[in-house]
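Regression test case RT-17, inverse folding.

Input:
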């Protein structure tokens, strides 16, 4: 099972396998506090898309563009799906202040459809 969680929230045992899916390391978070099992920055949106979305706030278009980018990252998608098979739960971590419309929630839509 995949879930999403903001990295600024406290880590919990129920998080299972914790994967940071942001390209940039989150400000103010030490590696110890992050309790990461994996940092998969290559699966994050490109810098151009990330900057565009930050300015435009167009969620539907962002998801469309991000999904297009992910078509070239099939091995990373497969890696996440294999992690889900190995672990009871995989928590995708993100740093965005927007808890409803961020790259982790867009990614989970792709992984669960």
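Golden output:
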């Amino acid at each position: 099972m995949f879930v999403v969680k903001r990295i600024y929230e406290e880590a919990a045992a129920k998080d299972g396998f914790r994967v940071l899916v942001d390209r940039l390391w989150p400000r103010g978070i030490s590696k110890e506090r992050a309790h990461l099992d994996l940092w998969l920055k290559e699966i994050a949106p490109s810098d151009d898309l990330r900057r565009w979305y930050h300015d435009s706030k167009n969620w539907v278009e962002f998801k469309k563009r991000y999904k297009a980018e992910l078509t070239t990252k099939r091995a990373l998608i497969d890696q996440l799906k294999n992690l889900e098979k190995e672990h009871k739960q995989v928590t995708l971590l993100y740093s965005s202040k927007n808890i409803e419309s961020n790259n982790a929630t867009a990614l989970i839509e792709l992984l669960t459809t």
